[in-house]
Amino acid sequence: MRKTWIALMPLVIAGVAHSAQAKELATQDQYMCSWGAGTAARAQELKLSGVSLYAARQKIQVYKFAKSWMRMMALGITEQTYDSPSRFKPTAVRQSFYEDCVRYKLARK
Protein backbone atom coordinates (compact mmCIF):
# COMPACT_ATOMS: atom_id res chain seq x y z
CA MET A 1 0.00 0.00 0.00
CA ARG A 2 2.79 2.38 0.87
CA LYS A 3 4.49 1.73 -2.48
CA THR A 4 1.24 2.58 -4.25
CA TRP A 5 1.01 5.94 -2.46
CA ILE A 6 4.64 6.70 -3.23
CA ALA A 7 4.03 5.89 -6.88
CA LEU A 8 0.82 7.96 -7.10
CA MET A 9 2.03 11.01 -5.19
CA PRO A 10 4.10 12.52 -8.05
CA LEU A 11 1.11 12.10 -10.39
CA VAL A 12 -1.19 13.87 -7.94
CA ILE A 13 1.28 16.71 -7.46
CA ALA A 14 1.77 17.07 -11.21
CA GLY A 15 -1.99 17.14 -11.74
CA VAL A 16 -2.51 19.86 -9.16
CA ALA A 17 0.33 21.93 -10.61
CA HIS A 18 -1.03 21.55 -14.13
CA SER A 19 -4.54 22.60 -13.12
CA ALA A 20 -3.15 25.69 -11.41
CA GLN A 21 -1.37 26.73 -14.61
CA ALA A 22 -4.32 25.94 -16.85
CA LYS A 23 -6.38 28.93 -15.72
CA GLU A 24 -7.95 30.65 -18.65
CA LEU A 25 -8.36 34.34 -19.08
CA ALA A 26 -11.92 35.65 -19.31
CA THR A 27 -12.95 37.12 -22.66
CA GLN A 28 -13.30 40.59 -21.14
CA ASP A 29 -9.79 40.37 -19.68
CA GLN A 30 -8.35 39.25 -23.02
CA TYR A 31 -10.06 42.17 -24.72
CA MET A 32 -8.78 44.60 -22.11
CA CYS A 33 -5.19 43.34 -22.39
CA SER A 34 -5.29 43.39 -26.18
CA TRP A 35 -6.79 46.87 -26.28
CA GLY A 36 -4.27 48.18 -23.73
CA ALA A 37 -1.38 46.66 -25.66
CA GLY A 38 -2.55 48.41 -28.82
CA THR A 39 -2.87 51.69 -26.94
CA ALA A 40 0.65 51.34 -25.54
CA ALA A 41 2.02 50.59 -29.01
CA ARG A 42 0.31 53.66 -30.49
CA ALA A 43 1.64 55.82 -27.65
CA GLN A 44 5.15 54.49 -28.28
CA GLU A 45 4.79 55.29 -32.01
CA LEU A 46 3.79 58.85 -31.18
CA LYS A 47 6.61 59.19 -28.68
CA LEU A 48 9.25 57.91 -31.10
CA SER A 49 7.97 60.14 -33.89
CA GLY A 50 8.46 63.22 -31.70
CA VAL A 51 4.85 64.03 -30.85
CA SER A 52 4.59 65.77 -27.48
CA LEU A 53 2.67 64.29 -24.57
CA TYR A 54 0.29 67.23 -24.74
CA ALA A 55 -0.51 66.53 -28.41
CA ALA A 56 -0.93 62.82 -27.69
CA ARG A 57 -3.39 63.64 -24.91
CA GLN A 58 -5.34 65.90 -27.25
CA LYS A 59 -5.62 63.07 -29.79
CA ILE A 60 -6.99 60.78 -27.09
CA GLN A 61 -9.53 63.40 -25.96
CA VAL A 62 -10.93 63.71 -29.49
CA TYR A 63 -11.20 59.95 -30.08
CA LYS A 64 -14.55 58.23 -29.50
CA PHE A 65 -14.25 55.20 -27.22
CA ALA A 66 -16.63 52.24 -27.08
CA LYS A 67 -16.52 51.82 -23.30
CA SER A 68 -16.49 54.38 -20.50
CA TRP A 69 -13.28 53.13 -18.87
CA MET A 70 -11.22 53.38 -22.05
CA ARG A 71 -10.50 57.12 -22.12
CA MET A 72 -8.94 57.30 -18.66
CA MET A 73 -7.01 54.10 -19.19
CA ALA A 74 -5.71 55.34 -22.56
CA LEU A 75 -4.55 58.56 -20.92
CA GLY A 76 -2.80 56.62 -18.15
CA ILE A 77 -1.11 54.20 -20.54
CA THR A 78 0.03 57.07 -22.76
CA GLU A 79 1.43 59.01 -19.82
CA GLN A 80 3.32 55.95 -18.52
CA THR A 81 4.68 55.30 -22.00
CA TYR A 82 5.94 58.87 -22.30
CA ASP A 83 7.45 58.77 -18.79
CA SER A 84 9.44 55.66 -19.69
CA PRO A 85 12.92 56.18 -21.15
CA SER A 86 12.30 53.13 -23.36
CA ARG A 87 13.10 53.38 -27.07
CA PHE A 88 11.66 49.95 -27.93
CA LYS A 89 9.78 49.46 -31.16
CA PRO A 90 5.98 49.64 -30.85
CA THR A 91 5.60 45.93 -31.67
CA ALA A 92 7.89 45.03 -28.75
CA VAL A 93 5.93 47.34 -26.46
CA ARG A 94 2.65 45.75 -27.58
CA GLN A 95 3.95 42.23 -26.93
CA SER A 96 5.45 43.12 -23.56
CA PHE A 97 2.32 44.95 -22.39
CA TYR A 98 0.06 42.09 -23.43
CA GLU A 99 2.19 39.41 -21.75
CA ASP A 100 2.47 41.40 -18.52
CA CYS A 101 -1.26 42.15 -18.49
CA VAL A 102 -2.17 38.49 -19.00
CA ARG A 103 0.28 37.43 -16.29
CA TYR A 104 -1.25 39.99 -13.91
CA LYS A 105 -4.83 38.95 -14.67
CA LEU A 106 -4.03 35.26 -14.20
CA ALA A 107 -2.22 35.95 -10.92
CA ARG A 108 -5.31 37.72 -9.58
CA LYS A 109 -7.47 34.62 -10.12
Automatic annotation (TrEMBL):
Source domain of life is Bacteria
Q: Which residues form the signal peptide?
A: 1-22
Keywords in alphabetical order: Signal
User: Under which name does UniProt file this protein?
Assistant: Valyl-tRNA synthetase
Give the organism, scientific name: Pseudomonas jessenii
